[in-house]
Amino acid sequence: MFTNEYEIFLKKLKKARLEANLTQVEVSRILECHQSYISKSESGERRVDFVELVRFSKIYKKPLDYFKG
Predict the structure, then answer these.
(1) Of 26, 47, 24, residue with least CA distance to 36
(2) How far apart are CA 27 and CA 59, in angstroms?
(3) Deepest in the core among 4, 22, 42, 69, taking most CB within 10 A?
(4) Residue pLDDT, tens place only, 46-56
(5) Can you list the domains of the chain with their CATH numbers?
(6) 6, 44 contact by CB (below 8 A)
(7) CA nearest 31: which of 9, 8, 10, 53?
(8) Rounded to a whole number, what is the distance in angstroms from the first to the last CA of the chain?
(9) pLDDT at 1 (0 to 100)
(10) What gap in Å lies between CA 69 and CA 65, rounded to an integer?
(11) Looking at residue 66, what is its pLDDT?
């Protein structure tokens, strides 16, 4: 369904949130969006664009390189 690189990215996206000790609900409050947005982003149901990734990386305190495949 996804390329291997995108599968790795999705795993790292979720891992970064967990390492930041944040729930999907907490992240959704920070981003002022629905929890389902976070869930769909992590599951690959919706693709994450670069601007969104920058926001996630700031919230999770991870460099952009962290998310590379």
Answers:
(1) 24
(2) 8
(3) 42
(4) 999 999 999 99
(5) 4-62 (1.10.260.40)
(6) yes
(7) 53
(8) 16
(9) 73
(10) 9
(11) 97
